[in-house]
Amino acid sequence: MNIALIGYGKMGRMIEQIACSAGHKITAIIDPFAAENKGENCSKISKTIAEADFSNTDAAIEFTRPDEAVNNIIILSKMKIPAVIGTTGWLENMETVKKTVENDKSSLFWASNFSIGVNLFFQIAWYAAKLMNNFPEYDAAGFESHHNKKMDSPSGTAKILAEGVLSILDRKNKIVWETMNRKPEADELHFPSLRLGSVPGTHSLYFDSPADTIEITHTARNREGFAFGAVRAAQWLFSEKRTGVFTIDDMMIDLFRVCP
Q1: How far does CA 217 lie from the centroid of its chain?
Q2: pLDDT above 70: residue 28
Q3: Alpha-carbon gap, residue 240 to 245, rounded angstroms
Q4: Quick one: which of 31, 76, 130, 227 could link to 8 by a disulfide (CB 3.0–4.6 Å)?
Q5: What's the pTM value of the predicted model, to 2 decimals?
Q6: Burial of 69 (0-12, 13-18, 19+ CB in 10 A)
Q7: Which residues contact residue 119 at a Cβ distance below 8 angstroms, ignoring those fewer than 6 apart?
Q8: Which secondary-structure segment (H or E) carries 163?
Q9: For 108-161, what is each residue's pLDDT tens digit?
Q10: CA 7 to CA 174: how far, in whole Å?
């Protein structure tokens, strides 16, 4: 498969390594901030999408910034290039994006986190929340940390985790993301964030009673799991010439038989 990379930072470079080791070819790289003239696998680096050659591209993988993602998606949609979007923080524009992709009969795959491990973690955490409906003595809260270059807070992964818990755990009706300078209300799910150094991403869900604490945590050792998932998503999107808007839940159901 021929892949275009939009964004050539740490994630873009990791995706390049994973894709090439799996036998794929990087045919275009777009990054206005990349200093090199070529990527590690001899693909020319273009400063803008308009400068890049997509004539031999089967799919594009985009990890950039929230303020760039929507424009990139629309351009890729008009070119009918299957797009895998790893950028978070743009979902308030989802309706516009969805209409564009559907009208163009193109394809979009988005996820807040492409790690297969994280998506298994979601299932485990949400099942735990369901069990806790029968044990009201356990309070619930969460916490997430990421590297200090991350643009959004809370993370998209934290939002999906917390919103899933909120929809399942009957005694919680509101998520509080910010620091509290007061006592939390019983129906509030507190889920603060930390940005520190080079942390790739850690998400935890806690259930606490007077007698004990149950902690469910996913810790990413590096970005490899995210990169592998993004390449797998590009394969999944391109393999059946799918059209429309998809999430990682669709791929999990289809490939791994894990129900959302």
Answers
A1: 17
A2: yes
A3: 14
A4: 31
A5: 0.77
A6: buried
A7: 113, 248, 249, 252, 258
A8: helix 156-168
A9: 999 988 998 998 999 899 999 999 999 999 999 999 999 998 888 998 889 999
A10: 35
Bridge pairing between strands 45-46 and 25-30: parallel
Question: Per the structure block, which two tokens stand in for 260?
Answer: 């959302």
CA gyration radius for the chain?
Answer: 19
Place of tokens 């940005």: 195
pLDDT value for 33? 84
Cβ(55)–Cβ(211) under 8 Å? no
CA distance 72 to 93: 13
| Catalytically annotated residues | 146, 150
Distances (CA, A) of 53 to 2, 34, 82, 239: 12, 17, 15, 22
Residue among 37, 203, 59 nearest 119 (CA): 203
pLDDT digits (tens, 9 = 90+) for 45-71: 899 998 899 999 999 999 999 999 999
Which pLDDT score is estimated for 186? 97
Structure tokens at 141: 């809260």
